[in-house]
Specification:
Chain lengths: 752, 752
């Protein structure tokens, strides 16, 4: 099998950059001073042992963050970032994640390291056996596992480009075996570049300790390795499986997963499955946590590992596999124990490898980040540019522990800075971001099946739910949403079922509408296009209208739509009731953009002050919008005899808009607890009458002090089938109502 | 109460033309020679005694068509027309409806007149008692009942315009009592204008008979009247109720409904309810069937009756109510028995009334059909213009029976002419028209809640279902339709569940897509905008593409949508599977617009011939579309070396389009019985995988002879959430599949 020839095959090349990825990242929970916490795993997170994203590793304080398998590195890092944010915001606000592989200061008595309090007894017993074998301290080391799978298209293309191996699964296994052996041989380069555990903190070492800092304690014999009697041959998959089985039989390993190799062969739940199915993917386990990236691993690192694995496939190996792997172990150990600022003994070899990889990327037409190779050469030239070197340098003025605490604080602050968003998903709607957050927290698998279209797949065990735009779900029937979409139909149905809706008529041509003038002329009424409610073409006549004004309003409305509604105008305040599954989840009152005077500042200054609120932003990226000072606002001020430089009196309220939409700077005020049950019942019953399960229904209420049963106490304006959720979660004033979490629990009632 | 003053009140006038209407129309089923049929009520029609639209009156052959209550005359006639069409097309094609009030030739032995075979015993017993009291012959007379209710707004406005009566229900009763008395007094004018039963057919009269033709046998003592001892006072609602009760007590009437007044007071299921609730509406019962309108009553008649009732409200009555009503009876009897061509003895009075009504319409600003009053004056001047006169005149050359048979045939032909549409609902989608038809036939109440939006409310007993666009229902969840709407999501889900879909990728910018060139360049593939499938911007490369062509196709596609799909091209024929509730209801193959040569005619002539098919029309108003001969068709011919005036050889098939859409003249061919179960199972399972209940799923099948389990035997292109239904009901070739009826039965499983 001439892999070098196969790789440059034109039918192979297009697929080289396609792969599947997954990352696991461990990290200790510490307090704001960098000390290990004594708290349990956060209660906010679903406590299931098989939480797909946030688990406990060896210790109760040791969080393991796990991404799903993704088809691109971008997605991988989007998930990794989001999972970090969910983890941070699920912990106590005074807790943070330790950004190093080596644990923070440990308790003097290792018994005070608390083993993860899992529900599963076997899991606890296994950890107990590890504690007995290796000591608890060593288990507190954290790291990154990088899971990698070549795309099926690539493997198929490679398979077709050769003729020696007849069965595809066997071919695939051979590919991964070669990569694994080569990786084990060359991994010293990874240790050099990305090793990042130069020193340990207090109480890590029991007796013996390291006198000098190194590149990677974790990758050295002092780190997270099996005892010397654990020996596995990589010469073939068969020998690999047989050796591991033998060691378990002999009791040298308690379980398969106790085999801590730098590469683990994956492809089933048990090693024995590999024999049947072949190798499905590999897991690189020798990656230290990168303290200089909030995710513990940078995008560039992940990209390079992919490239490095292609190089491992391309690169010839030596015939004696075991010898080849064994050499690699020695090299890696040597590099791991070098001083972080020392030029490595393998500098020449490393430079050759970098050159070869660069040539290979050109040969295969692979895209790589700019400056990647220059950067590596610099790191080889100047060890202080390596991760270990950098960390060691920074620690000189204080200590590694203090540096780590500072870094952790910075990440902690970033994670809490904008609690209403998921940084890596800000291109999606706020409500969808909330929903992703809540689903992840609850241990529900989230797959984004169409990002542009806000389409999510949520999965808990075998239960799948699809959600679009935050709350379009399987719970509502299609017809219910179509009913809500059509204002005339909504009104007819509500009226037939005895609810009060503004009286009115629909007109499909202007002549007909003009003839109906006398029906409305002396009343308070609204002329509006059928399809838009708070948009263009709406005229309100609070005290009747002249024929000319009536005609003008119709012309305006018919410009917007071929159907126009003329409706009775209802007096009162508009309230949005958010209904889900026959229950009121939140009630909101929306107030037009406004400022409250203090007798000192101008309108312009007051607006600027109000806009300081981090909840206010632009383009629906934040729960509230910044107040604009455009034509409309100036006009509105003028109507009140004010200008931008007027100084309103103390407590004087100036409105800058007529409409109350949050999208034009309005304030959202939660009034759920202020609205009496009778109005809530009307809202719930009306939504039920429409056959809907999730709806934002708008009621005009003349006075919430008056009972709903009073004559004309309320009127229903419309029902919305995709009601905004974020405004209830982050209102301007009043209590937050986490309606996205309610939705998760509605979709997945099996959640406890 | 000065009604004349009240009516001209400005707050009253706008509401005068608002009212609610309902029509009942009886008619005998006859064969094509005009003889009474011996068949039972059509089996196609749900046999329930309380069918809302199509019932049996006295006899099994006597159909009663009932409209729902409507808010406008237009709607009223739309329903009446539709119900007629449903009735006609539910009967045997050799049956039709007799267009006269007087029955066709009756059996010699009146026992051969079959009483309606109702399920309800009481109904049968009541009819038996009528047969005993009046004889079966008399019960065979048919007529129109016109139900009329003033709008609530009008009554409220009138109520406010007076101060004598304090309770609204009482006021309303007084209004209707006045109208009723006046109508009973003046109804002779209606008898004159609209009387239409001049002669009887064979065996109607037992012994005595009429020597001379008259205006209305039905309205005379020879018609459908109670015996003389039935006397009811209309002086107040109380006396009315008391008198009816008394007559039942005495056994003079068997039931309340046996009281055959020209006006019936309505407002509850029993006369006694009137006392409590007041009069709700009135039923005019003295309207003969108008043979010159296919509905048995014309729009103008209905419009005039409304006007006439306003006049009845306006017109003063005499103090002695009983006398006033009694006089009216005598006048009407006199007019009814006048010769149809004789000038009426009340000509002068009639002219005064017409003048007064005309003035009243001007005074109140009411809109009326042009020429209405001129027409009445002509009818008074020339009795041959009245309905009775016209029928009598026409019968001179042959006989009334022959004229009626001719008219009936004409209506029968019209009703069958376009069996794929409901004439009065042709502005709606064909599938919705079918659904209305089927629902009506099944006795489901159909309310059109938004006509423009194809929004129906279907009701059977207490079970309500809403349907939009023919098949958007409560059966599908919102998310299932959103999944189907999004081709990328559909494909992902199907793929995850193991179905074969064309491999492909979605691109959101052209650069990204260009970079992927090598992934597709050597394959058969399609470039298409994400949101439209068979629209613009699609390029097909059956044998790979050059970079230039690839780039061009992307530019085209990105002009249509910001997202573009590049997909593997699948070889084979496309089949549409219509799935409902996990069952295949129909499978259709669509073939591009084409003609088959006969060796004689030119392409142009062949197209013209093919377009003769009454199923072919334009703009989706018919099940198939006419083949166009535009630029595209000419180009397509040119590609085959032909022109419009080429004469294709016998059996040579020439395609005029590349695409197979029915909307561009394609042929739809039902192949349900030709497709094997394994492909059907795939279609059903795939729709289930999407969580959908109603879907048109498109499979490309390489050969239907090859089992579906064969490698790459099929591929799923897309699933449609609002699949066309009419094309399955009226295919170009193959069996009709009445999917709308299946839908009705799916929505209402309680139907037997």
């Amino acid at each position: 099998m001439d892999m070098k020839k196969m790789l440059v095959n034109e039918r192979v090349k297009p697929y080289l950059s396609k792969a599947r990825y997954g990352i696991e990242k461990e990290g200790q929970r510490v307090d704001l001073t960098g000390m290990l916490v004594h708290t349990n795993h956060p209660e906010n997170i679903a406590m299931s042992d098989d939480h797909p994203y946030i688990k406990r590793d060896f210790a109760e304080t040791q969080m393991e963050l796990v991404t799903p398998v993704t088809d691109s590195l971008k997605e991988l890092f989007d998930y990794l970032t989001a999972i970090h944010e969910v983890a941070y915001r699920s912990m106590d606000e005074n807790e943070m994640l330790w950004p190093l592989s080596m644990p923070p200061e440990l308790p003097k008595d290792e018994k005070d390291i608390i083993i993860a309090k899992l529900a599963n007894d076997e899991g606890v017993q296994y950890r107990q056996s590890l504690a007995d074998s290796y000591g608890r301290r060593k288990q507190m080391i954290s790291g990154i596992h990088y899971n990698f799978e070549f795309s099926d298209e690539l493997l198929q293309a490679l398979f077709k480009a050769q003729s020696e191996i007849i069965a595809f699964p066997h071919f695939k296994t051979e590919v991964y075996m070669k990569i694994t052996r080569n990786y084990l041989h060359y991994r010293w380069l990874i240790t050099y570049l990305y090793g990042a555990s130069p020193s340990s903190e207090k109480n890590f070492f029991d007796n013996d300790s390291l006198d000098e800092p190194v590149r990677s304690i974790r990758s050295s014999k002092y780190g997270y390795t099996n005892r010397n009697n654990v020996q596995v041959s990589y010469s073939s998959l068969k020998t690999y499986i047989a050796d591991i089985s033998l060691m378990i039989e002999k009791g040298i390993l308690s379980e398969e997963k106790e085999f801590y190799s730098a590469v683990r062969l994956r492809g089933g739940s048990q090693v024995a499955d590999l024999e049947e199915r072949g190798i499905g993917y590999i897991e690189l386990r020798n990656i230290d946590i990168n303290p200089f990236d909030k995710n513990g691993i940078s995008y560039e690192q992940a990209e390079f590992l992919h490239l490095f694995l292609i190089y491992m496939l391309w690169k010839d190996e030596e015939m004696d596999c075991d010898e080849w792997v064994k050499k690699g172990e020695l090299y890696s150990e040597a590099v791991a124990l070098e001083h972080p600022l020392a030029i490595t003994q393998f500098k020449a070899e490393a430079e050759t490898i970098v050159d070869e990889i660069e040539q290979l990327t050109q040969l295969l037409g692979l895209a790589v980040s700019e400056g990647l190779f220059a950067n590596f050469r610099e790191m080889l030239q100047d060890p202080s540019k390596t991760l270990a070197g950098k960390l060691f340098e920074k620690s000189k003025d204080s200590s590694q522990g203090q540096v780590a605490t500072c870094i952790a604080k910075e990440y902690h602050e970033t994670a809490w800075e904008k609690p209403y968003q998921l940084t890596s998903f800000t291109d999606m709607e706020l409500s969808t971001q909330f929903l992703i957050f809540d689903a992840m927290q609850q241990g529900i698998q989230v797959e984004i099946i169409d990002r542009q279209d806000q389409f999510l797949k949520l999965k808990l065990n075998n239960h799948i739910e699809y959600v679009k735009n935050g709350n379009m779900t399987s719970k509502d029937s299609y017809i219910a949403t179509l009913i809500m979409e059509n204002k005339t139909v909504t009104k007819k149905i509500l009226q037939q079922q005895g609810f009060r809706v503004p009286a009115g008529e629909e007109f499909n041509d202007i002549e007909q509408a003009l003839q109906a003038f006398e029906l409305f002329s002396t009343k308070a009424f609204v002329v509006k296009p059928k399809s838009t409610n708070y948009g263009l073409g709406i005229s309100i006549f609070k005290e009747g209208a002249s024929y000319e004004d009536y005609q003008k309003s119709l012309t305006l409305a018919f410009e917007e739509d071929s159907s126009v509604l003329i409706e009775e105008f209802l007096n009162g305040t508009e309230y949005r009731f958010f209904i889900m599954n026959d229950e009121v989840q939140a009630v909101m009152s929306r107030i037009p953009a406004n400022v409250v005077g203090d007798g000192k500042h101008t309108v312009e200054e007051l607006v600027a002050q109000k806009n300081q609120d981090p909840l206010r932003g632009r383009d629906h990226r934040t729960p509230l919008e910044k107040i604009q000072l455009g034509e409309l606002e100036v006009l509105m001020l003028k109507g009140q005899g004010k200008k931008l430089d007027s100084i309103p009196k103390k407590d004087e309220i100036l409105y800058l808009r007529e409409n109350s939409n949050v999208s034009t700077g309005g304030d959202s005020i939660d009034v759920t607890d202020q609205i009496s049950d009778d109005y809530k019942k009307i809202a719930v019953d009306a939504v039920a009458a429409l056959g809907a399960k999730i709806s934002g229904i708008d009621l005009i209420i003349e006075s919430i002090e008056v009972p709903a049963s009073a004559n004309n106490a309320y009127g229903i304006i419309e029902a919305n089938f995709n009601p905004s959720m974020y405004m209830h979660i982050f209102p301007y004033k009043g209590k937050s109502r986490r309606v996205t979490m309610k939705l998760i629990r509605y979709l997945f009632p099996e959640l406890v």
